Amino acid sequence: MIGYAPAVLLLLACTSSSIRVGAGDDTAAPGHDSPVPTFDTAEALGAAPQDTAPDTDTDTDTDEERLYIPGVILEMSLDFDDNATRTLRWGSTEWVEGTLTFDGDSWLVGVRLKGSSTADDLDGKPSLKIDADRYVADQKVRGHTKFNLHNQMIDPMMMSETLTYESYRDAGMPAPRTAYVRLTINGDEYGLYNAVEPPSREFLRTWFGDDAGNLYENGWQDCEVTDPSCFDVEQDDESNDDALVALSQAARLSGKEWDAAIFELLDEDAFVGAMTMEMLLAHWDGYAYDLSNYRLYHHPTEQRFYFLPWSTDLDYGWRPWSYPTCGRYGVEPSDYDDGILALRCEQSETCHAAIVDRMEVENERWAAADPVARMEALYTLIRDDVYADRRKYYSNSDFERDRKSTRLNSSHSSVSR
Fold first, then answer.
1. Is residue 21 within 8 Å of 191, Cβ to Cβ?
2. Are 329 and 319 in contact (CB under 8 A)?
3. What's 336's DSSP letter?
4. CA angle 90, 93, 99 (to 5 degrees)
5. What's the DSSP call for residue 319?
């Protein structure tokens, strides 16, 4: 079998080796060793692909109602009563009431802790889910019912989610929008967060024009499409799982039978794009490499499934637990065959050729997009806040080292058949 030639878009070569809670003050103040780029940061950030989702009649949010604004760091505060504070401090994932203040307005919202490997309680730097209509029916925060606040615990450069999701969207593929947030909780500074758009109904309407299909999340590690029971149902509007069962049966096929059956159930172009992006971005913590962190949305009109990326804070070959030198883990595209659909695609002449062709297209697009300028613009935007963040898990020197090594190793590679 002809494998995929290495074609990773960005490779980290940093040497960060440990997670250190509250390690934000081990180096001098910003400016000690890294001159700020001289290009127009606002222009570079404003040109980021935050709005590449297709226009639909159902997306009525105005610019003023937007939550995901590029080129700025949003100021948010959350305030809780004593009972809610105790619940969050104990590490419970129970929903509590909180007051969210943002851009001069306040909302009563639902808040709960989130995360597995990134979980923390209120005494540390917790990741949080925000639900605007949990206690107030039909309420929205700047046009959005739900969003997450991610602590970026395991990403030293605090840019991975932003850069990865932008790459997906810039390729015309469904992926969350993001925005940086400077968060305070009960008056205490909690540092820099990433507001991340979940696969909510607003997200589904924006990308698919229809939010009435079933939405599934892999329920645990090694959740494979051949086993429908391993999925958690986030949305069950179709009232049955018949389509997922059909997909699981088709996934068990091989050879020409697989070719004939699978793309009656999967959108072929979207699937090829999703698998290609996992390889090119070294998104090893997704479906193809690790059978983890993905969503499946069943479009009720097209009657086809789409893969949605999630949890991209370990991209670009970075695995802090067992592989402390980043840029080495999960960077070989030919290794992305843990998921059975990815394996069968690699074994299929037509599907394999489609991925190679898509790699060439994405590499050309990436080369023209000047990823170094984009990364440096983000760096300029967040650098002072990263240094000031006393709750972050990595040190300032780790942040600088990861950013520098990522920038220096930014490249695009050709692929071959």
1. no
2. yes
3. -
4. 85
5. B
